[in-house]
Specification:
116 residues; alpha+beta; Glutaredoxin; four-stranded mixed sheet
Length: 116
Amino acid sequence: MRKITFVKKILEDGQPCKKCAEVETRLRKTGQLQHINKIAIADERNPDSEGIKLAELHGIKIAPFFIVETESDTLVYTVYLKFIREVLDQTRPLSSDDSANEALDTLRSNPDLDLI
């Protein structure tokens, strides 16, 4: 059995974070949202919000992210396309746009990396 939690952020001004909204739109458009068991909100205005607590628990500093729990393991994904490929088992080949977006997501998620 597998449980997937999608954590998205609400900014201090009450607006959803842009990347979170983009990812949620993609999940809805592709029908993949049906595979998400729970959506947790990391509300910057509320340090006790469920998403903030999950981010702290897993040492995550960016949103959105996905927590995938199985009977034997818990994995956290901060890169949407990697999550799709590894968890939702998308068999279609990545387009060049997908590859470029994944590379940019990886760089944004790892500020210590540099573009070559």
